[in-house]
Design goal:
alpha/beta, two-stranded antiparallel sheet
Length: 240
């Protein structure tokens, strides 16, 4: 199953990736097998988040959108800006994968809970532990959350809910929409980042619109040094 999924992803990348015109951080245009290994994310204060990647799962590697979302949310913003996050915000990340986005948000002062399926949790815990010095007392919590199961009460009531590049395949789209409806009904900011070629995007948007008003975030919001035409970020506003 995992091998088949990897083959599908690699095939799609070869067929549909836009020409690589951005700096080295863009990785999905390169499918020669050398793009993964040790990812170094430079924070604004000369601190670095280091992620040792592996091929064991799609959730153990850094994808373009996690980098782009981290840079977007790190941008200084005026009070009242809808995309402003920081100290005092309780953040839930769905499908946290490599941990990059959640750790970047933790460094902004957010109280972050990162979630993943059971088999990816050990990798995510290891990444957080390895970055203890960079995170200090802001270390995110790591919890197991399987979208196919009922959502526990501990995952409700967050101010901000984020998910990065979790729509690679269409079989996850309906489950993600259902989980978001359960955890983000009262959230002030809900962001789901993806890439335009992902199979799950149309099905997710159709399912999510039952509980949310969905709008695409303007591309101008991205840090221009960390964006490309394939990136697509949705903001979901709970209905009612």
């Amino acid at each position: 199953m995992a091998a088949a999924l990897e083959a599908i992803i690699a095939s799609k990348a070869r067929r549909a990736s836009a020409p690589q015109t951005q700096p080295h951080w863009r990785r999905e245009g390169d499918v020669d097998g050398t793009r993964y290994g040790r990812y170094d994310y430079a924070c604004g204060d000369d601190t670095h988040l280091i992620i040792e990647e592996s091929y064991s799962s799609t959730g153990t590697r850094v994808w373009d959108m996690s980098v782009a979302m981290a840079r977007l949310l790190e941008k200084p913003r005026a009070a009242g800006d809808a995309l402003r996050v920081g100290a005092g915000d309780a953040v839930l990340e769905l499908g946290a994968g490599s941990g990059l986005l959640g750790m970047a948000l933790a460094r902004l002062g957010c109280a972050v809970t990162m979630t993943e399926i059971d088999e990816v949790v050990p990798h995510l815990e290891g990444v957080v532990a390895a970055n203890a010095a960079a995170l200090g007392d802001r270390r995110p919590a790591v919890r197991a959350l399987d979208w196919r199961r009922p959502v526990a009460a501990e995952f409700r009531g967050f101010d901000v809910v984020v998910a990065s590049d979790v729509l690679i395949c269409d079989q996850w789209a309906g489950d993600l929409a259902r989980v978001l409806a359960a955890v983000a009904a009262r959230a002030r900011l809900v962001l789901v980042g993806t890439q335009r070629r992902r199979d799950g995007v149309p099905l997710f948007l159709e399912a999510a619109r039952a509980a949310f008003d969905v709008a695409e975030v303007d591309a101008a919001e991205f840090d221009p040094a960390f964006s490309h035409a394939d990136l697509q970020l949705f903001r979901l506003a709970p209905k009612g």
